[in-house]
Design brief:
The chain has 67 residues and is an alpha+beta fold. The chain is built from two helices and three strands.
Length: 67
């Protein structure tokens, strides 16, 4: 399931649920760009097209909730 961008800037909560060990360099860089460095770490971001694109690329390693 892909996340879509709403017209209203909402906040989303992103939690890393799987390890990035064995991921490619670009996937690890994307996780760092999202602010996720440890397992079960949670960050909040504004819903922007850039963040949504990163979430859609890493959806197999993270859980996303609307705040």
């Amino acid at each position: 399931m892909y996340l879509k961008v709403n017209t209203v800037m909402a906040k989303i909560r992103i939690t890393q649920i799987k390890s990035s060990i064995g991921s490619t360099k670009s996937q690890k860089a994307t996780m760092n760009a999202l602010g996720l460095r440890n397992m079960h770490q949670t960050v909040e971001h504004e819903t922007t097209p850039q963040i949504v694109g990163m979430i859609n690329k890493m959806r197999h390693l993270i859980r996303v909730e609307e705040v």
